């Protein structure tokens, strides 16, 4: 640690020790952008470094940057700071682009190669005055730099000697809203859709701007407004006008809008007899529709498509393939610069084929057949947003087609709104995973950011957890998932722990006595959920349809691969799915080094054991325990972890305002109960196959199995109705 940082650390310690801890009540609306005053000892250096704000630029994005800096600096330093156009004092913060500011141009900052979105933040001296310069090639980069500068203060970093040069690694950083036009959100646990379609375009809820601003603070630059299971009506003139009003609200924050396009729209809206992508009339309909959209929304981003998946229409309905469908839409958008994100979440109606193999089988033969403005959007695992899955084998297998990563921020399979599960660790695990596609080090992050195979456009998509709840995300800690997603979309190699630290400091307090334990809770939380829900590589044991709570016994859903029994295959001999050559051979879809590892049960990590192997109840695990004992131990551990997280949270009461403390505390109590429910129900059920006693000290389930099997939740949230 150098002297400057040491001094800063001492200052921090002193600052927080003298800090009065009675935090004012907050409801979470302000997210991580609270700009509350920094502790006294910081004020002197922070005030010296931020005496005034100077810009030469007048665009709406530059104005947003100015507003943000003025509000942020005023809040953080407790001194009114406004934007002016000349440097008068030392400590000025000068922000803008070389094109608009001669002063910035004269500084010759290293902006080349940073694109539109990158920025430089640099401490400089000009005519004897000390300045901080936030500069970029484009206004949007300035806005991102402004948020970064404020984050330095929010997380109590030094403001002297700054020399930051930063650009995103991914071009398109999107939130996908699974919002229906009636404002019901598929898999939404934070209220209703914030798009108030009925009142648009005449009334623009201020929340649209607040939403855009929060996204911009993370570098998110696009929003798909409607559900992947799409309604064609979004493409009608009525809705285009409404969407244009949203685009207008988002524009100062660099957010473009996108639609999910319903493939059968030419039939439903256009009165055509077919939606065959090779039919010239169909192509002409989409071309005219794209032209109309761009007339209404000139910076429209493009289409997301869920085709031939879960009942959605698609090119296969007309004997065509995914590339035929994607390319036809891509051609309609290309003259306007739009892109198509074509989802690979498909599982053909063939119950005999292992479901986790199907996307690969459909898409790999099409590698290289897509237009330049198409990306294939792949969920992180081959199944469906489970608490843990191996990576999708597509990431290493499609070398001539850019692939977008689709993560799910809303916690459909991870406890809805009330469970505290920080997803940063899940996503980091995926992004750091090695595909071995071009030898070791071929990580998923590199496949996404284009550095592995060189493909463009580069895209990250996160299924949003945003709704009308006052706290946006259904719980305070769910905000951390929105935050972490944005940070990882900007830089897929960022660290989950570092992100959690920033979020905790900005959302609650930078006091290290809070941040340390809070981050510890977050970092342990996802593994806890895996343990109390689906340990050792199990998956999809959730209640059918709504996915709330455990139902591993379900075997009567419409199709074989909708049943939990399909995913655990428990029988008298053991549990797990055989995906080796002796089974479905799904393992063969991975690159040889990975396939060889998973094929060998001894080299398969415990975390994925039952995903790849059907394992006997008495199998000797690495720990020396039998599989049955190990399984129960994991369930016990998951429950114990939540109790520990809850106890740790209660110790943090002095640092948190009453409202956010209480809500989190009560939610943790719910999580404790539900973790126990998961454990008890799963153990009671699996024991009917294992027929073995519980390991010593492990409590018997509270109720008989029939009790858990009898629970019904007809109105659980998030189900498309
Ligand atoms: C599943 C969800 C379903 C979505 C589907 C998808 O249960 O609501 O429509 O994913 O991603 O996990 O298309």
Q: Layout of helices and strands, plus pairs?
A:
Layout: H1 3-17, H2 40-49, E1 52-54, H3 60-77, E2 83-84, E3 92-96, H4 102-107, E4 119-126, E5 129-135, H5 139-154, E6 163-166, E7 172-176, H6 206-216, E8 222-224, H7 237-250, E9 256-260, H8 265-268, H9 280-296, E10 302-305, H10 322-333, E11 339-343, H11 358-363, E12 374-379, H12 394-397, E13 403-408, H13 424-432, H14 444-448, E14 459-463, H15 476-490, H16 496-507, H17 512-533, H18 564-568, E15 574-575, H19 592-599, H20 609-612, E16 615-616, H21 627-651, H22 658-690, H23 705-710
Helix pairs in contact: 3-5, 9-10, 13-16, 15-16, 16-17, 17-21, 21-22
Beta-D-glucopyranuronic acid (BDP) binds at residues 186-187, 228-229, 306, 310, 345, 384-385, 412.
Which geometry do the CA atoms define?
Answer: globular
Number of separate helices: 23
For the terminal residues, how far apart are their CA atoms? 57 Å
Backbone CA Rg: 26 Å
Sheet with most strands: strand arrangement = 7-8-9-10-11-12-13-14
Provide mean pLDDT, rounded: 95
How much beta, percentage-wise? 5-15%
What structural class do the secondary elements suggest? alpha/beta
Q: What name does CATH use for the topology of the largest domain?
A: TIM Barrel
Number of separate strands:
16
CATH class of the largest domain: Alpha Beta
Q: Tell me the count of domains.
A: 3
Main sheet record: 8 strands, parallel, barrel
Uncertain parts: 18-22
Helix-residue proportion: 25-40%
At the fourth level of CATH, the homologous superfamily of the largest domain is Glycosidases
In this entry the ligands are: beta-D-glucopyranuronic acid
CATH architecture of the largest domain: Alpha-Beta Barrel
């Amino acid at each position: 640690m150098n002297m400057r940082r040491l001094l800063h650390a001492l200052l921090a310690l002193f600052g927080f020790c003298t800090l009065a801890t009675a935090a004012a009540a907050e409801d979470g609306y302000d997210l991580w952008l609270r700009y509350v005053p920094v502790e006294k000892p910081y004020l002197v250096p922070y005030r010296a470094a931020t005496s005034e704000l100077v810009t030469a630029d007048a665009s709406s994005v530059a104005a947003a940057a100015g507003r943000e800096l003025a509000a942020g600096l005023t809040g953080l330093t407790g001194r009114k700071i406004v934007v002016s156009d000349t440097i008068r004092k030392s400590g000025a913060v000068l922000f803008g682009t070389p094109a608009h500011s001669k002063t910035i141009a004269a500084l010759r900052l290293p902006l080349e190669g940073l694109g539109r979105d990158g920025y430089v933040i640099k401490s400089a001296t000009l005519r004897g005055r000390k300045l901080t310069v936030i500069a970029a090639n484009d206004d949007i980069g300035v806005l991102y730099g402004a948020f970064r500068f404020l984050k330095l203060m929010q997380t109590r970093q030094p403001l002297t000697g700054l020399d930051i040069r930063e650009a995103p690694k991914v071009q398109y950083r999107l939130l996908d809203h699974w919002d229906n036009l009636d404002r019901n959100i598929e898999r939404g646990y934070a209220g209703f859709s914030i798009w108030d379609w009925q009142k648009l375009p005449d009334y623009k809820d201020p929340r649209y701007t607040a939403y855009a601003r929060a996204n911009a603070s993370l570098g998110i630059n696009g929003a798909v407004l409607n559900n992947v299971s799409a309604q064609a009506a979004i493409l009608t003139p009525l809705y285009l006008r409404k969407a244009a009003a949203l685009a207008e609200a988002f524009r100062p924050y660099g957010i473009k809008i996108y639609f999910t396009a319903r493939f059968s729209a030419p039939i439903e809206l256009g009165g055509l007899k077919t939606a065959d992508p090779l039919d010239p009339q169909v192509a002409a309909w989409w071309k005219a529709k794209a032209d109309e959209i761009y007339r209404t929304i000139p910076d429209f981003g493009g289409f997301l498509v869920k085709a031939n998946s879960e009942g959605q229409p698609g090119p296969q309905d007309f004997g065509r393939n995914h590339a035929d469908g994607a390319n036809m839409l891509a051609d309609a958008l290309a003259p306007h610069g739009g892109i198509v994100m074509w989802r690979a979440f498909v599982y053909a109606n063939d119950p005999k084929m292992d479901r986790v193999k199907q996307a690969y089988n459909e898409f790999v033969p099409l590698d290289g057949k897509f237009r330049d403005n198409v990306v294939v959007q792949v969920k992180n695992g081959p199944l469906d947003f489970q608490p843990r899955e191996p990576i999708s084998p597509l990431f290493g297998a499609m070398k001539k087609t850019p692939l977008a990563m689709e993560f799910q921020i809303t916690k459909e399979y991870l406890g809805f709104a009330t469970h505290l599960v920080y997803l940063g660790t899940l996503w980091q695990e995926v992004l750091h995973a090695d595909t071995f596609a071009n030898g070791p080090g071929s990580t998923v992050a590199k496949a996404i950011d284009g550095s592995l195979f060189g493909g463009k456009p580069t895209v990250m998509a996160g299924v949003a957890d945003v709704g009308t709840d006052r706290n946006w995300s259904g719980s305070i800690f769910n905000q951390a998932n929105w935050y972490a997603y944005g940070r990882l979309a900007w830089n897929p190699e960022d660290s989950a722990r570092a992100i959690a630290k920033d979020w905790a400091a900005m959302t609650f307090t930078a006091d290290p006595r809070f941040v340390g334990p809070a981050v510890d809770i977050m970092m342990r939380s996802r593994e806890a959920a895996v343990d109390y829900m689906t340990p050792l590589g199990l998956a999809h044991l959730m209640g059918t349809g709504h996915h709330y709570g455990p139902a591993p016994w379900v075997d009567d859903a419409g199709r074989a691969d909708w049943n939990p029994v399909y995913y655990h295959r428990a029988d008298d001999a053991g549990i797990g799915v055989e995906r080796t050559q002796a089974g479905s051979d799904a393992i063969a879809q991975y690159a040889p080094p990975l396939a060889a590892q998973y094929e060998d049960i001894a080299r398969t990590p415990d975390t994925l054991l039952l995903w790849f192997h059907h394992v006997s109840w008495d199998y000797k695990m690495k720990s020396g325990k039998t599989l049955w004992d190990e399984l129960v131990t994991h369930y016990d551990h998951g429950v114990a972890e939540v109790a520990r997280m809850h106890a740790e949270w209660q110790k943090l009461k002095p640092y948190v305002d009453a409202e956010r403390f209480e809500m989190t505390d009560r939610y943790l109590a719910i999580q404790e109960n539900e973790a126990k429910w998961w454990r008890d129900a799963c153990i009671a059920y699996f024991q009917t196959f294992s027929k073995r006693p519980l390991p010593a000290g492990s409590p018997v389930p509270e109720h008989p199995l029939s009790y858990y099997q009898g629970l019904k939740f007809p109105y659980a949230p998030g189900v498309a109705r």
